[in-house]
């Protein structure tokens, strides 16, 4: 008995004595995690014991506590947007850990599904990401699309108008459609965003042919670029397949700024700048003898009288395009939050004057973004924005002798003719053309205004959360409502309007657009345990509703001095209404094995009321594979920190344009009886969506902890079932039919090289180079080759020509090369040989920031019909040179006016200075946290052989095959700014 008691006493003594040693071998580690830039606590940081599944996360104040199985051990701290941090611990301790923002971007989240994302280092597609600093950090930006120049490989951006408020055509990996939409799908915080171009009715006054010739802006201009946190661009079908039949032209995902936990921070910024014409053409070097030889003795007398009276000719280019447009933009934002609610509030007002008197753009914008955690089960996000924008775009672009477009009037206006008003305010008649450009500038109006409300909301329901599994349901919805008004007014005293002419013109448009989208998605995340495969599975449904109602009322023969439609005699009302519905199911599974092998498979099925059979579902599969070779156990080359091979395949679609599936009826009035009759175009009830399939290969290499990285991608994209128009025999009762008649393909290469050249206490320098090219080909065509309607001006002048075996962007004109007669002949191609961009950011002593961006476009041609007009008017500046004389004697217009459109441009440059912390405290005390100011510019200089205002040009807006044809554009401008930023 005594021996048993002695035994248990010994056991208790040994156990009690061993407890401290056991605690030392298996103990708790506590600590706090902060971010490096401002020392703020970081909530939600993952803390894992390396080599185990033991982990925790930091709380709202950045604190954590974790049990370590044995010492020594390594703790791995990871948080999206920050570089991973490893800390070795040898015993029970308390740690203070600081995490740096990820300079290489490998930790940033990239969207790969409608409710899931991965780190960039695991991405299997070449998804481009543009941060807020890259977007607006260098210089002030008017519009989002204009701010993307040179920042995304594989994206071709063309300005469709130099007017304030923009007008841009975005092409992601080439042309995706001939008749349909080539602009990418834009989604802002989960809301489908309408980027429509809205015709104003201007063509009915100017005599232009089509609504896309009216110099309209696109409505991405309603979004303030300064509200954006980042932009992700899904350039091809392999990345955009999850968006189904809306993703054929690519997808642009825009995420706006959100709140951060911590004290409320207020930011104020003020930009002051100016617009100046970027490139002047000048006037022809006239002499008295030359005036007489070109025109006649009477014109010589007028020339000599003007020289005698004024001492110089009238420079109408400077008179019309020579204004200095002043720009101001004021921004104020606040951000903050706690463990329950985070918020971002932002407001801005931009007022931008144009280089033409009485032109300009202004935008007032308000935004409220809220994140709220209701409980451990429910949380939601809300994004609300309202904007009011106004634009005065005046009169440029194509017309048919309407006497309004400056490009036309200047082409025929002789510089010795006085067109200024007399003392009584009467404007003289232009003796050489149907309009006086000074009258148009001062008296005619071409305005629009836009009220826009965008609301998005997402509710997350966390159903299950264990060590291995997390299941949630994501319910989201979005509303985009746009109310647009257009107003065009040409007084009855305009010389082409004076009776017996139209007697004045007025057009008023009331245009409303409503888009609703909703999604319901279930997501199941299964964590990798003990090195096993981690899975993310999602299933969902999506619905999209679009409604538009465009009403245009116009009248001519106005009562004297009246500016409303009801005060006109000849009145016309047009109305266009459309309603579209899309519905789809989708599913996707992502697998991740130890960050070594990452694979994704997915499928989406969609139906649309724009398809021939609105109830038929079309399928769009996707699959991708990424191999992070440098993460495999056998990898021992420490200097190569990343080596990833990737491949992806995906399909997307694009339904027919609204109305293509049915035969329209037109109203007729016969003997006072109203009826309807069939119009010329026959609908096709069997039309299928255009479908793109893309195969993408690439690799990513990172050297020296990714201080030097290269991303290389090759893609091959095939678009089948192109929706084209063919002629029908008159016996059918129709003139044409729109249906599936062809195929095309795009292939290209994209390279992106980034280098963190220096990074030390007093000097840092990072640099990036992008290089990309695309080639297109029409691979099948069931109709004879044809000039694309609405994309040019016929084979006599040169136009886009759709031809099997040829580029979809070729320019063709009638030439007689062999003496047997004229035939369609290729004279150029608007597709560049390649494009390249080089950006640099340098910081000196943490206070001076210098940045610049060069963009190089090699090759590609434009059809310069502005020179065609000025040659007809005999005023082209270079007409007395050998090139000019050669144009005058040439009989082939399509060759005369095709010009190389390559360029090298300093797109952006800036220098900024940040006050030191001590200087800020000495000047402002503790109220102000930071002050930064500096100077910047856009489109600072351009080196090009192109003879007109800007090699980036499109007379036909941003839709279809629009780029590369010029007729009297609104010239591009240089912009220079002084900026002040103050943070409280």
TrEMBL record:
Pfam families: CarbopepD_reg_2, Plug. InterPro entries: Beta-barrel_TonB_sf, CarboxyPept-like_regulatory, Plug_dom, Plug_dom_sf, TonB-dep_OMP_SusC/RagA, TonB-dep_OMP_SusC/RagA_CS, TonB-dep_rcpt-like. It is a multi-pass membrane protein. GO terms for cellular component: cell outer membrane. Signal peptide: none annotated. It comes from the Bacteria. Belongs to the TonB-dependent receptor family. This is SusC/RagA family TonB-linked outer membrane protein. It comes from Arenibacter certesii. The lineage of its organism: Bacteria, Pseudomonadati, Bacteroidota, Flavobacteriia, Flavobacteriales.
């Amino acid at each position: 008995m005594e021996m048993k008691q002695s035994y248990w006493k010994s056991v208790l003594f040994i156990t009690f004595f061993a407890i401290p040693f056991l605690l030392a071998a298996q103990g708790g580690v506590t600590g706090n995690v902060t971010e490096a830039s401002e020392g703020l606590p970081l909530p939600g940081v993952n803390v894992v014991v390396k080599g185990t599944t033991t982990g925790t996360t930091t709380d709202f104040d950045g604190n954590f506590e974790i049990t370590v199985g044995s010492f020594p051990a390594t703790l791995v701290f990871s948080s999206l947007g920050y570089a991973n941090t490893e800390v070795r611990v040898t015993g029970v301790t308390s740690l203070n850990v600081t995490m740096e923002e990820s300079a290489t971007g490998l930790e940033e989240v990239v969207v790969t599904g409608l409710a899931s994302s991965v780190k960039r280092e695991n991405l299997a597609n070449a998804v481009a990401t543009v941060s807020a600093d890259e977007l607006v950090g260098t210089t002030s930006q008017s519009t989002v699309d204009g701010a993307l120049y040179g920042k995304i490989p594989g994206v071709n951006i063309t300005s469709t108008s130099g007017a304030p408020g923009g007008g841009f055509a975005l092409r992601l990996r080439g042309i995706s459609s001939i008749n349909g939409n080539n602009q990418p799908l834009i989604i802002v915080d989960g809301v489908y965003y309408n980027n429509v171009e809205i015709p104003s009715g201007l063509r009915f006054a100017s005599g232009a042919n089509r609504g896309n010739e009216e110099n309209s802006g696109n409505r991405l201009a309603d979004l303030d670029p300064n509200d954006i946190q980042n932009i992700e661009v899904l350039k091809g079908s392999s990345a955009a397949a999850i968006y189904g039949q809306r993703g054929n032209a690519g997808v642009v995902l825009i995420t706006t700024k959100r709140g951060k936990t911590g004290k409320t921070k207020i930011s104020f910024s003020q930009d002051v700048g100016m617009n100046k014409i970027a490139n002047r053409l000048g006037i022809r070097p006239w002499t008295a003898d030359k005036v007489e030889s070109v025109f006649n003795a009477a014109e010589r007398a007028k020339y000599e009288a003007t020289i005698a009276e004024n001492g110089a000719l009238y420079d109408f280019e400077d008179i019309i395009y020579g204004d200095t447009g002043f720009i101001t933009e004021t921004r104020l934002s606040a951000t903050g939050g706690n463990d329950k609610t985070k918020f971002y509030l932002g407001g801005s007002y931009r007022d931008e004057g144009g280089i033409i008197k009485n032109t300009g753009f202004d935008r007032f914008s308000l935004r409220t973004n809220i994140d709220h955690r209701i409980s451990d089960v429910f949380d939601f996000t809300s994004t609300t924005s309202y904007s009011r924008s106004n634009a005065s775009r005046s009169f440029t672009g194509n017309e048919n002798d309407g006497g309004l477009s400056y490009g036309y009037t200047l082409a025929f206006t002789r510089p010795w003719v006085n067109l200024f008003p007399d003392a009584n305010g009467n404007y003289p008649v232009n003796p050489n053309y149907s309009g006086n450009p000074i009258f148009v500038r001062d008296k005619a109006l071409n305005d629009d205004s836009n009220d826009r409300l965008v609301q998005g909301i997402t509710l997350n329901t966390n159903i299950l959360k264990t060590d291995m599994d997390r299941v949630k349901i994501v319910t989201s919805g979005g509303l985009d409502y746009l109310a647009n008004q257009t107003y065009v007014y040409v007084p009855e005293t305009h010389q082409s309007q004076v009776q017996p002419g139209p007697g004045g013109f007025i057009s008023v448009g009331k245009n409303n657009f409503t888009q609703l989208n909703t999604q319901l998605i279930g997501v199941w995340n299964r964590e990798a345990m003990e090195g096993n495969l981690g899975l993310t599975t999602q299933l969902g449904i999506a619905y999209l509703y679009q409604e538009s109602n465009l009403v245009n009322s116009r009248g001519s023969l106005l009562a004297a001095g009246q500016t409303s439609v009801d005060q006109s005699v000849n009145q016309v009302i047009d109305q266009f209404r459309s309603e579209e519905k899309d519905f789809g199911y989708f599913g996707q599974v992502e697998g991740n094995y130890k960050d070594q092998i990452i694979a994704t498979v997915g499928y989406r099925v969609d139906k649309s009321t724009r398809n021939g059979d609105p109830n038929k579902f079309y399928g769009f599969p996707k699959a991708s594979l990424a191999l992070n070779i440098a993460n495999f156990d056998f990898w021992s080359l420490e200097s190569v920190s990343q080596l990833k091979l990737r491949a992806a395949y995906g399909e997307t679609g694009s339904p027919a344009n609204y109305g293509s599936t049915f035969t329209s009826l037109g109203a007729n009035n016969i003997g006072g009886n109203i009826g309807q009759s069939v119009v010329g175009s026959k609908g096709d009830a069997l039309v299928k969506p255009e479908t793109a399939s893309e195969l993408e290969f690439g690799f990513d290499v990172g050297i020296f902890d990714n201080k030097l990285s290269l991303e290389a991608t090759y893609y091959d994209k095939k678009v089948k079932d192109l929706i084209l128009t063919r002629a029908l025999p008159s016996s059918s009762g129709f003139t044409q039919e729109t249906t599936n008649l062809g195929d095309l393909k795009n292939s290209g290469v994209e390279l992106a090289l980034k280098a963190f050249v220096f990074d030390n206490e007093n000097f840092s320098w990072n640099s990036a180079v992008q290089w990309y090219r695309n080639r297109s080909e029409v691979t099948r065509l069931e109709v004879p080759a044809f000039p694309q309607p609405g994309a040019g001006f016929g084979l006599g002048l040169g136009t886009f020509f759709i031809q099997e075996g040829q580029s979809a962007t070729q320019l063709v004109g009638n030439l007689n090369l062999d003496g047997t007669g004229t035939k369609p002949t290729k004279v150029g191609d608007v597709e560049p040989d390649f494009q390249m961009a080089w950006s640099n950011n340098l910081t000196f002593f943490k206070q001076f920031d210098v940045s610049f961006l060069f963009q190089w476009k090699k090759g590609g041609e434009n059809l310069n019909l502005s020179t065609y007009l000025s040659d007809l008017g005999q005023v082209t500046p270079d007409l007395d040179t050998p090139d000019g004389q050669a144009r005058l004697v040439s009989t082939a217009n399509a060759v005369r006016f095709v010009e190389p459109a390559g360029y090298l441009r300093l797109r952006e440059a800036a220098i900024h200075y940040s006050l030191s912390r001590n200087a800020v405290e000495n000047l402002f005390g503790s109220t102000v946290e930071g002050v930064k100011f500096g100077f910047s510019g856009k489109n600072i200089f351009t080196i090009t052989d192109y003879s007109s205002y800007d090699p980036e040009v499109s007379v036909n807006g941003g839709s279809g095959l629009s780029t590369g044809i010029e007729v009297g554009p609104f010239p591009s401008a240089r912009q220079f700014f002084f900026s002040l930023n103050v943070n409280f």
